[in-house]
């Protein structure tokens, strides 16, 4: 079009959020279309959209019932997100029919088939704008957010700087399970240099877990029929770190199945 617009067709791979001086920041584990559960959870937290912020670790879509709401959700000014491997599959399946078949057939993307083209376009646009990583300035220090993991030998600043030029690094951010593998084997987890805390999702675990300076918060919100302990985790990181869990199997805030919060 002749105008100079650096980022118009190449969205930023990395975003920094300035400190939220007036409200709280919550990092949200893999939602997979469970928007009603999220709404109940935010209500339980007295979430105030005029001051509080919600930061998704990615995998907002697929498997759950309300994936088509993703574009509308990402348009809220209080919502931030990094992309997950499921968002990447949606984007890549437009040019890769084998991947499209895998995604729709085996990875929970069947909702896409029923979507009108105009709605698909809105979803693609909103998702294509998502960075691979973001960082949040907080009272507690710098908090990083990535869907899967950061290479174990790479300081955070190098990771975010190289994302734009290194496709292997972007794949790692979306798919890797190296640190969570250590956790599962009972091995020590290498910290990420340059961060107070890294928040990740991607691999479902029974309860949110901190290992070193890495917090794993995918607690399988979409898997209520498979795991009794399935829940949505909202990890508050500003002004202090507080874990909030909302069971997926029952409305939160009711009796013994209500939210479980503990300081960490
Ligand atoms: Mn994932």
TrEMBL record:
PROSITE patterns: SER_THR_PHOSPHATASE
Pfam family, one: Metallophos
Residue ranges of every copy of the Serine/threonine specific protein phosphatases domain listed in the record: 82-87
GO molecular function: phosphatase activity
Superkingdom of source: Bacteria
GO cellular component, one term: cytoplasm
SUPFAM superfamilies: Metallo-dependent phosphatases (SSF56300)
Gene3D superfamilies: 3.60.21.10
Identification of the protein by name: Serine/threonine specific protein phosphatases domain-containing protein
Organism annotation: Acidihalobacter aeolianus
